[in-house]
């Protein structure tokens, strides 16, 4: 699926091209026009694949830690933290684009999750329920702040509305390079937490009896999910549904072992977002739709098929 979606991403667009010229450019023997076309499409493809993989793995981790089938990366305040940071920077410095948006959104998302974690830990110790509630409270407060700023400052709203939908239009290598270290670190940390998450799915008491370091596994998984979701959101804006749907489909395909779920989620999340981006280019041709508005339509059939077969589990 990922290979097919990647090939379509390179060939299909505002000016669709044949596979032959694309292949010649990739092998170093193409004409200048095709090189110019691919110079815009290759970064977009790579950014979509990396962001999709990050959101999917983040969703796997959040659902594993909270044991909540409706868990997704925004549950702990990632999305609203990034949004509040972007709005603040825009209000203070004017319209932000490219790397400035990334550098604004990334720390805001991390700080929001950190506040949620500290509030939840203080309220309920090692329990995960206060953490989720704290995330909801932080998201609500930040959401009110974002809404107030966008209503009071039209210039902020005009800049924010393009980012908040989520789009791969104008994706650049510089943006990808900026967020890639956080995503790589998040993926490595996620893989390290796989075995511990398997123990957590059996319940905290059973996990402790098996010798699993519950607090350390939970903290590591939350940190990994935060890095992945924050970097992805900072790069392209909030992308809905990927982090919610992909974990369900992955479980239906490979079972409950997080050590297998994580690498499969990387591939499936990347394929889903790249495919959604291809649809976004075609559905309103010759204009483009933001990929954030398409992901639900692309991802919903996978989730609905799994639900109808009775294979979606918490």
UniProtKB/TrEMBL annotation:
Origin superkingdom = Bacteria
Q: Which residues cross the membrane?
A: 41-62, 74-95, 101-120, 127-145, 176-197, 217-250, 262-283, 289-307
Name the family the entry cites.
Belongs to the binding-protein-dependent transport system permease family. FecCD subfamily.
Question: InterPro entries this protein is in?
Answer: ABC_BtuC-like, ABC_transptr_permease_BtuC
The family database entries (Pfam families) matched by this protein are listed as: FecCD
Q: What is its subcellular localisation? A: Cell membrane
Species name:
Nesterenkonia halobia
Q: By what name is this protein known? A: Iron chelate uptake ABC transporter family permease subunit
Ordered alphabetically, the record's keywords are: Cell membrane, Membrane, Transmembrane, Transmembrane helix, Transport
Q: Residue span of the signal peptide, if any?
A: none
What's its membrane topology? Multi-pass membrane protein
Q: Does the keyword Isomerase apply?
A: no
